[in-house]
Amino acid sequence: MSEAKQPDTSGISEEIEEIIIEEKKPEPIKEEQPLPQEEEKSAVEPAQTETRSKRNALYDITASFGEYVVGVLITTVSIPIRWTVRLAKFLWKHTVLFRDTLIRIFTALFKFLGAPFIRIKRTLRISMAEIKKAEENHDRTAAFRIKAAVVKDALFGRRGLLVTLFNYAAPIISLVFLFGIVNYVTDTGYAIKLSINGKMMGYIENEQVYSDAERITGERITYAGGNASELDLTPEYSLERLGDQQYVTKFQLANMMLEMSDSNIEYALGIYIDGKFYGAVLENNKIEKALDSILNSYRTDSDDEEVAFEQEITYEPGLFLEDSIISEDEMITLLNSEKQQASYYTVQEGDSPSLISDKLDIPLKTLEEYNPEITDEDYIMRAGKQLLLEQSVPFLSVSIARTEVYEVSVPYDTEHTTDDDHYQGVFTTVQKGEQGKNQVTARVYYVNGVETRRTISGTKVVKEPVTEIISEGTQPPQSSHYSNESVAYDKKYIWPVQGGTYWGGWGSYWGHTGVDIGGAYGADIYAGASGVVTYAGWDNGGYGNMVTILHPDGYTTLYGHCSDVFVTVGQEVTQGQCIAAVGQTGRAEGNHCHFEVRLGDQRLNPDYYLTIP
Fold this sequence. Notes:
Structural class: alpha+beta
CATH superfamily of the domain at 477-608: Glucose Permease (Domain IIA)
Radius of gyration: 59 Å
């Protein structure tokens, strides 16, 4: 049977879909013309849009920054937590034996502590069964008896709860009680009860208090011209537990001891200087002003200046003999007086005996008498050494500390260079050195106006030092040069200047006592004969750079106006050896060598002794 042929409806379906789509298309919206107010609104909208975009950008930046901060915080917190968890896992994994031991210990402890309660629970279960059985038999008396017995055994039985707790707590209570007793005994203070001549004086901390009080009493009596042995005092000590009693001080005890004497006593202020008693006064107002005046005489009104007495001055109120009480004027006279005392001066960098003498205003002779070693030729005065000064010092020494600012010289360095234009051994100053200056800030300490030490806190460069540069010649020394000249048979000395010409001899002008030999600047000058150099250097008499040679026969030859000198005093030279160079130093006209011959103090005519070419 053949299948029925279906009609082709694909084309119809496509047409229907197109119609439906066409119907569903929205109609185009007609643009309305904006009203005048709407036109103004549309003109403002771009500005609002721009502002809104800026706000959105700011919000985005803030949000991004917040996310970054939160991320950093989370990372910072999570890293330690993560490592802590890892460490805990590691310890838990590698400490199995330790964990098992802890578990066993806690299990045993739990069993030990819980055993009484387990027993009580078991007893209660058995007893509840008996009580239930008695109640079923309507025997209330038996049930009540069982309940009472259960409570009694549970609380007060041999293994009852209260008995067990008492057994556990009793040792702890005993230990606490024992510690309390020990603490009470150790914290209980004891004091020394002092009685003198049978009279109770009070409680003292130790026997040293009585010794100090006895000394103070003796000072007060002996100061007044009395004798401390006049007081017949017999101390007695006993130990008592300290309660609310107050200790008696050494000064209070001294007052009590004076009251036991037969002398006239009066209440006053005792003046102690470094612990030594110097008398008592009724008032101290004038004394305080006098002390301030002494300190003011040393003050310079520096900002950080500290001025104080070296000695400790204290006032102790108490009872004093009338003979030991003096007026304030007498005490002021004592405080302003002077005393002979050996003092010391600490040597500072750059000090010398004469400088110290001027600084301290004492004769140099006195300083040398107290310190004879400084007169030795090989004595070196090093900074930090102390020199003895026997001098009068104030009765009250005053220490001063102040910050001082001053300038110090800074030595310059010396640099050596070489110079091909001069001979070896010839030094030329290319650049003269100059000292620099530094501003130094230091804390300086004085006692009675004499410096004892200083501590430098800062240094500021005021002027840099200028390095001195000295050039040394590198040419071979001319002293190795020798003349080819020879001596005539009837003469003593060779012609001393290489290529030199005879300018003028003895008496060529008034006062001329030698021979002038002209030559080129720097030309060699030779020794006329062998001998020993007796002078080599500058002469202030007009010869300039000069060399003199003493010959074996007692004669002396002189070579003047040299530009350079190549020999030194004491050097032995041979005839014809180069000793200097022609120049024009001193009182001279033109480059030449002034040659003289002398015998002792007598000047001889060189023409009779010199070989003239």
